[in-house]
Amino acid sequence: MKTLKDLGDLKGKRVLVRADFNVPLDGTTITDDGRIRAALPTIKALRADGAKVILMAHLGRPKGKVVPELSLAPVAKRLGELLGVDVPLAEDTYGEDAHAKVAAMNDGDVVLLQNVRFNPEETSKDEAERDAYAQKIADLGDVFVSDGFGVVHRAQGSNYSIAKFLPSAAGLLVEKEVKALSRATENPERPLTVVLGGSKVSDKLGVIENLLGKANRLVIGGGMVFTFLKAKGYEVGTSLLEEDQLETVKGYIETAEKTGVELVLPTDIVVNAGFPAGDTPVAPEVVKADAIPADKMGLDIGPESQKLFHDKIVDSKTVVWNGPMGVFEVAAFAEGTRAVAQGLVDATKAGAFTIVGGGDSASAVRNLGFPEDGFSHISTGGGASLEFLEGKELPGLKVLE
Ligand SMILES: Nc1ncnc2c1ncn2[C@@H]1O[C@H](COP(=O)(O)OP(=O)(O)OP(=O)(O)O)[C@@H](O)[C@H]1O
Ligand SMILES: O=C(O)[C@H](O)COP(=O)(O)O
């Protein structure tokens, strides 16, 4: 994979950088700026080389329309605060204003182009249409740097097609992510423990399939665990359940037994009358995992399981974690996620290599007050880190070879 040093002297060059600034917003307030901070090393390195840094990014899924709530204005403001310089936001991606702002740049300046997904061609499935659009963006720059790890699993205009029209290389974040995630997929130090949670089995199936052949231990929590408990014949009440995945999951349980992969499921569950939204009362109670009342919903792993999961994680040399253990957004159901995060921190202290993957998991770690350096690596990729762990070829990386 080509990297920044392969691009030669960048002084005075117009460098188009694709970043992933797809940050969670509450109105115009950024609730987690982790992805913006993760892009700083590349931006600072390019500025130090005297390059003109022209940033491209998406925010949400505006489906090719200009959606004011998804303007990158809050990102430009936050980026300016973090860099200590003004970061002008172009009104468009490749139009008059983009050209005017780029033309006005001096060496070391930074400009952010407006949300690439305001353009329908960005996500077009028609390669010719996407290429014509990518060429228009490429006209703004001399070289392309791909640093949005969170979108490398997408073959879209600003992170994939553009590499056909300019000398291209990976930025420092993409380099760091590939190096860290490869440590978990290529000859990892063992025991390798994979912890999966979050809200949908189907999102994580590829990972389970691929890692079952690699992991020594698979620890399952979150909303997806109830499909596993049901597959074992337990009742799960009104908990999240993907009936159509039951047979697949039964297959995984058998494969794990046959291949000697330790499958760790919770033995107790925190239940509630319903999902904690609106006027649903939050009245948590702990029940055995094989005795969930028919009218209750499981929303976190229980205290016995928190200790079990923590101890299994600490007894590992490599740990990959994707997906919260419970509805961590509500304090009453955050303890499972906290216990797993603590397990990774303790494993890191004991010398293990630990990775937190997934947008929600990374936000949970930060929102629950864990220091980022308590983990070996916090990935900025959600789906992208999952697909990397699945062993899939990622289009945004392939174009950099
Ligand atoms: N038992 C549960 N019941 C319902 N929802 C749950 C449960 N446990 C966790 N969740 C929800 O799962 C969501 C996160 O699931 P998701 O799979 O998106 O996580 P993630 O893998 O970290 O995200 P991504 O990989 O997409 O960045 C959280 O919003 C959380 O509230
Ligand atoms: O949030 C993410 O996972 C990345 O920014 C990719 O976003 P997308 O799923 O809308 O392509």
TrEMBL record:
GO molecular function list: ADP binding; ATP binding; phosphoglycerate kinase activity
GO biological process, one term: gluconeogenesis
Binding site for (2R)-3-phosphoglycerate: R35, R117, R154
Entry's localization field: Cytoplasm
Key words, A-Z: ATP-binding, Cytoplasm, Glycolysis, Kinase, Nucleotide-binding, Transferase
Reaction catalyzed: (2R)-3-phosphoglycerate + ATP = (2R)-3-phospho-glyceroyl phosphate + ADP
EC id: 2.7.2.3
Residues involved in substrate binding: D20, F21, N22, R35, H58, L59, G60, R61, R117, R154
Binding site for ATP: K204, G298, E329, G358, G359, D360, S361
Annotated metabolic or biological route of this protein: Carbohydrate degradation; glycolysis; pyruvate from D-glyceraldehyde 3-phosphate: step 2/5
Any single GO CC term annotated in Swiss-Prot or TrEMBL for this entry: cytosol
Assembly with partners or alone: Monomer.
Name of this protein: Phosphoglycerate kinase
